[in-house]
Amino acid sequence: MMMASPATAPASAETQQGPASVADLAEGLLDAVVNISTSQSVGGGSVAPPRMQAPDGSPFQDFFDEFFKDRDGDGQRNRKVSSLGSGFVIDAKNGVIVTNNHVIDGADDIEVIFADGSKLKAELVGADPKTDLAVLKVTPVKPLTEVPFGDSDDMRIGDWVMAIGNPFGLGGTVTVGIISARGRDINSGPYDNFIQTDAAINRGNSGGPLFNMNGEVIGINTAIISPSGGSIGIGFAVPTELAVNVINQLKEFGETRRGWLGVRIQPVTDEIAESLGMDKAMGALVAGIIRGGPVDDGSIEPGDVITRFDGKDVDTMRDLPRVVAESPVGKAVDVTVIRKGEEQTVKVTLGRLEDSDQLASAEDPDKTGSEPAPTQKDVMVLGMSLAELTTDNRRDFGIADEVEGVLISEVDPDSAAADKRIDAGDVIVEIAQEEVATPADVEKRIAALKQDGRRNALLMLSGKTGELRFVTVRMD
């Protein structure tokens, strides 16, 4: 009995048809996706000849004026720089369009090009560099097509997605892929929480939509990783869970109005978790309170570990800035902290981040230059020479009067303390969330931790002007 070879066996209907088509889905969405064309005048290049001035009444003066109109006052030739990106309509009636901030940043002119080739001038409603989002507005001359936002929280790794945009100036390009990962931090901003996709995204796709299979926007395509400049299947989109709130604020106010807690934070490492008696590393360690900020009333203290904010878990340090920023200014929220080994919930009222950027920024203590010789030595603990703070050594080390604790006058360069970049002139304020005032207090606290079986000591250190930070030092 003869058997048909694989080469001659009839193909099934499913094999003949191939994968399910997305043509119908794409057809309904293409008209809502636009190209964004911008131009910007920049100086530079060669120096133009000296400006010519014709005699009064000369017929050549108009010629000279026209020739020199593109030169600035220093004789530099001005040139127009153009760029292309993508965007999408979210409000057809009012002509509201979303794109990336970096697509329109610094532009003198913004033009929106629709799928049918028509063009409209656009005005900038508002932009947010921190999330790389911008909202534009055009005056429609005919009905536009809009697309709705979907819920990016519902998307799972492996779900199909579709990108439409303007790669390399080629408008109306459709690509399909899957969600490769979620919650990506690519160090582009303080609120990184990107969707990663292998749908082909190239230069010019920036600001375009990433759709789910229901035709809803679940991300705004923003960045790629590519050594060559072309797609290698690693693209990133701002999820709608982050974008929608920002876009609504830009539409309403022309700016963002983010919540602000007024704390400086550090990651909770395994060493810090062990030193605090925590079962695992989680949350955000409060390293300092911004003076004049929302929690400068003692409701939250340095050394607290924030594990939950307004009903949302804070698994890592980078979760906290995002959930706080997404909260309304003036809202009273519950914050769960671990303080001295016990879980507590405190009520705080949020301030506004944009009004407090200068206060919220904290510079590290100046540790440059050589330190003066210590005026007093008491005891050596964990490779650190400790002394009580006096008027003389405050002056010698430049320590502010409001700083209280135990002075570190010298650090053994071969010690664990030196490995953690603890320097002479630092001041120990607390050990394992208990205040210390003398070198003897430090000795007793370290001995107690060793007796409890702890391997690390959590030190709250103050810089010369009062900036706080936490450091763990091995005790074995």
UniProtKB/TrEMBL annotation:
Subcellular location: Periplasm
Top class in the EC scheme: hydrolase
The entry's keywords: Hydrolase, Periplasm, Protease, Repeat, Serine protease, Signal, Stress response
Keyword Cell inner membrane belongs to the record: no
All copies of domain PDZ, residue ranges: 250-341, 386-464
Record-linked CDD domains: cpPDZ1_DegP-like
Gene3D superfamilies: 2.30.42.10, 2.30.42.60, 2.40.10.120
Domain of life of the native organism: Bacteria
Record field: catalytic activity: Acts on substrates that are at least partially unfolded. The cleavage site P1 residue is normally between a pair of hydrophobic residues, such as Val-|-Val
Region (Disordered): 355-375
UniProt record similarity statement: Belongs to the peptidase S1C family.
Name listed for the protein in its UniProt record: Probable periplasmic serine endoprotease DegP-like
UniProt source species: Hoeflea algicola
